[in-house]
Write a structure and sequence with these properties.
By secondary structure, this protein is mainly alpha-helical. It has 21 helices and no strands. The chain has two domains: about 210 residues, MetI-like fold; about 220 residues, MetI-like (MetI-like fold), CATH 1.10.3720.
């Protein structure tokens, strides 16, 4: 079911703070849940939601796509042969699941858990919105307060960032140790086919689980976003008398500054994604099919920002570029913001380019070399066209996430420079939630349009390779 893979990406594209605020609007007193089921029935759910457990639930809706995509790819790599061999030798489904499928999934599952753990530890949007509302303070909230709210205390922010970084690196080392102790391999080098398992009497339950997950992670947040953007008063409910386009009229008024913020985000994300694509190509050329400490060091440094929470990386950039000895004065300029996007999201470009480059054979390059083609000729006429789909895939990810980046934008943007995420966040802080939701819709549609055009071009490149 291809549509499931597409639907799972939707929570990933949704800014976490938007998702958290949508849930707050839905669950609060006189919110949409209370308007639907009544005050009595909603009271129990409201009390349970505005707790650390509810906060963890909202964060899980944003992060489960990481684990899903990794496990799906791992299951595709297993193929049908191991499962069928177990069945031929008399193993029941539960036995094959316990002794074959789960052991082969453990390495991918551990990587997915590591990513979810690090992203959860460094998550900014949900703690700063829902966490502050319920009085549940986490390390990220304290770091943000020490770096942006008077009195500024960079020493305390550095200490807390060190703790958070130690947690992330410790989790990474534990995951690497766990994987090194296992010797399960799903790929044998031969072509494999997928195993299809009929659900049988479990089919209704399976589809019910899918419906619940998508309902909680996509339907409720997005219905809340649209309802808030198109209504005059949230507490009045979604009625014909309460519907309005006033929020969008204010949004498109040049005096509101919303279009300026959207344009800034578009330009900064476009430039940052392009720079990360160039870096991804350079890192791939320096590390793929090369051995030695230098190649390993470059590879590690390119992927390091993905191993620690984003706010730790941002605080480190502030300390480095704000130092008195720094000869390049980019701090407090838009270039500092662009640099932050590049550092945070260059791992996406590197991983995508390396994945495609690593699958290429050497025969074409050897033939071109024998025919007298120079290194630049082989790179320009053979390598770059072949790895173009990976370059575009990394570009798409860097662009889409840069458009919604919040923590880096709040901490390093220059005064009087607004981007999409900071403008929406400011409107929420000032109580103009409907205007913020309206800009969210415009931003999501703008990003989606760019992604559709870019992905279609990527598909053409993939088809041209076949």
């Amino acid at each position: 079911h291809r549509w499931i893979d597409i639907a799972v990406i939707v929570p990933f594209m949704t800014p976490p703070y938007i998702n958290a605020i949508a849930w707050i609007i839905f669950m609060r007193r006189r919110g949409y849940l209370e308007q639907l089921v009544g005050e009595g029935a909603a009271g129990v759910l409201q009390d349970a939601f505005f707790t650390p457990v509810g906060m963890a639930m909202v964060m899980s809706f944003n992060l489960f796509p990481f684990l899903y995509l990794i496990l799906r790819n791992s299951l595709d790599n297993i193929g049908a042969s191991p499962d069928e061999a177990g069945a031929v030798h008399g193993g029941g489904f539960r036995y094959r699941l316990r002794r074959i499928i789960i052991p082969l999934l453990l390495s991918g599952y551990s990587m997915g858990i590591l990513l979810v753990f690090i992203k959860s530890a460094g998550e900014f949007g949900t703690p700063i919105t829902l966490g502050n509302r319920i009085g549940f303070i986490v390390l990220v909230s304290e770091i943000y307060q020490n770096t942006s709210i008077f009195p500024i205390d960079f020493g305390a922010a550095a200490a807390l960032s060190s703790v958070l970084m130690s947690i992330g690196i410790g989790a990474w080392f534990f995951q690497q140790w766990f994987v090194s102790r296992r010797h399960d391999r799903a790929l044998s080098g031969r072509a494999t086919r997928r195993a299809t398992v009929p659900l049988g009497r479990w089919r209704p339950l399976a589809w019910a689980v899918v419906a619940v997950v998508f309902g909680l992670s996509i339907v409720i947040p997005y219905l809340t976003v649209f309802a808030s953007a198109f209504t005059r008063l949230e507490s009045a409910g979604v009625t014909w008398d309460n519907l309005t386009l006033l929020n969008f009229q204010v949004l498109f008024d040049p005096r509101s500054g919303a279009l300026t913020a959207l344009g800034n985000s578009f330009r900064f994300a476009l430039l940052a994604a392009t720079i990360t694509a160039v870096i991804g190509i350079m890192v791939a050329l320096l590390t793929v099919r090369r051995v030695g400490a230098g190649a390993r060091s470059v590879d590690f440094l390119a992927l390091a920002p993905d191993m620690v929470p984003a706010i730790v990386v941002v605080v480190g950039l502030i300390f480095f570029w704000n130092a008195v000895w720094q000869p390049v004065p980019i701090y407090n300029t838009v270039w500092m913001l662009i640099l932050t996007y590049v550092v945070l999201y260059v791992p996406f470009s590197v991983q995508n380019v390396k994945a495609v480059y690593g699958q290429l054979g050497t025969s074409l390059f050897e033939a071109a070399q024998v025919a007298g083609g120079s290194w630049w000729f082989r790179t320009r006429r053979i390598l770059l066209p072949l790895i173009a789909p990976g370059i575009l895939a990394g570009w798409i990810m860097a662009f889409s996430i840069s458009m919604r980046e919040l923590v880096g934008s709040l901490l390093v943007r220059p005064p009087n420079v607004e981007v999409l995420s900071t403008y929406i966040f400011r409107e929420f802080e000032q109580g103009n939630r409907s205007l913020g939701m309206a800009l969210t819709i415009v931003g999501v549609f703008t990003t989606t349009a760019v992604l559709i055009v870019t992905d279609q071009y990527r598909e053409k490149l993939v088809a041209r390779r076949r």
